[in-house]
Predict the 3D structure of the following.
Amino acid sequence: MREVKAGIEYKINLNNKSFLLGRKKYKLLDKINSFGSISEAAKLTEISYRTALNHIEKIESSLDIKIVETQKGGKGGGGKTSLSEEGFAILKECKKINAIMELHKDANELKSVVKKIDSEKGVMIIGIKDIDINIPLNNKYEIGDKILALINYDNIFLMLEPYDSSIRNNLKGKIVELSLNNKIIRVKIDIGGIFIYSDITISAAKELDLELGKEIYVGFKAMSVATLKL
């Protein structure tokens, strides 16, 4: 998924073909699935019926699939429109991406590249500038793939000294910003030109004696990193 001037676009991969699905097209498919009517879906998406048909045709021709199925009515007329199996698969993928983004609304977003895959240990190493981070193995990724790593603010641990534990990543940085947010201290850390945020309690901030310019270690588990392929 990526941000564009008109809003969000979802990168859909199907049958070895890729297509960027805009927010309007996603909403159109969602409404067709809910109401079983292209005309009703077009109205709720705030586009014309002709535009809706053009959107459907463009997706189908780009991916070489049928995403909408229409059943003719009987003697009484009418009929029913529904998403095909492939159309529903596209909609489900978009909803999955939405759910991930909602879950990681307050998350560090780090653009990275897959550098190493260790199948035996079940981990991968991704690189962000000169920094390496361990994340869980994902068999869909290959070395060189560009991915977006997401780490929630409250999954970031702050430490005065690095230590070995279930935390798989330890990065040294410097505090560049402190702010109070709903009785939680939000800490901004500069790690070699990469900025990472951590949410900690006021008591934890006092215990660590946090202040601007202080060197601190950032820690987080490999399992706390979610990823999306760019």
